[in-house]
Amino acid sequence: MVHAYVMVKVHTGEADRLREATEAVDGVERAHIVAGDVDLIAVVDVDTPAGVKEVAATEIQSIDGVSTTQTYVAMD
Q1: Terminal CA-to-CA distance of the chain, rounded, Å?
Q2: How far apart, in whole angstroms, are the C-alpha atoms of residue 15 and residue 74?
Q3: Does this model's pTM top 0.90?
Q4: CB-based contact 16:32 (threshold 8 Å)
Q5: What is the model's pLDDT at position 13?
Q6: Which range marks the domain in which residue 7 is found?
Q7: What is the pLDDT tens value at each position of the chain, 76 positions in all?
Q8: What pLDDT was estimated at residue 33?
Q9: What is the C-alpha to C-alpha distance for residues 43 and 72, in angstroms, rounded to an integer?
Q10: Domain count, the chain
Q11: Using CA atoms, how far apart are residues 49 and 15, in angstroms rounded to an integer?
Q12: Which of 1, 23, 56, 63 could be disulfide-bonded to 71 (CB atoms 3.0-4.6 Å)?
């Protein structure tokens, strides 16, 4: 299992809608609205590193209102 965190910046103030849309992505275990440099943090659990790429770079990036993502893969 590959565990990762995806930091999400958004264009819009629709934090609740974007959190729900992010949590609906297969592989996203949960998403949190946060204060700071990013707007959401998504917790991702998938089988492979390629799965992390699919979730972050394809699925989350395609959600209307998402500006950028930055992904961190857990090393332990």
Answers
A1: 11
A2: 25
A3: yes
A4: no
A5: 83
A6: 2-73
A7: 999 999 999 987 888 999 999 999 999 999 999 999 999 999 999 999 999 999 999 999 999 999 999 999 999 8
A8: 97
A9: 10
A10: 1
A11: 27
A12: 56
Evaluate whether 46 touches 53 at the Cβ level (below 8 Å): no
Instruction: Confirm if 14 and 67 have CB atoms less than 8 A apart.
Output: no
Please state, in angstroms and as integers, the Cα–Cα distance from residue 15 to each residue in 19, 32, 36, 45, 58, following that order. 6, 10, 14, 22, 20
| Tokens 């998504």 belong to residue | 42
Helices (DSSP H) in 1-76: which residue ranges? 15-23, 49-53
Q: Residue 28: which region, alpha, beta or left (left: phi > 0; alpha: psi -120 to 50)? A: beta
Gap between the Cα atoms of 26 and 39, Å rounded: 20
CATH number for 31: 3.30.70.920
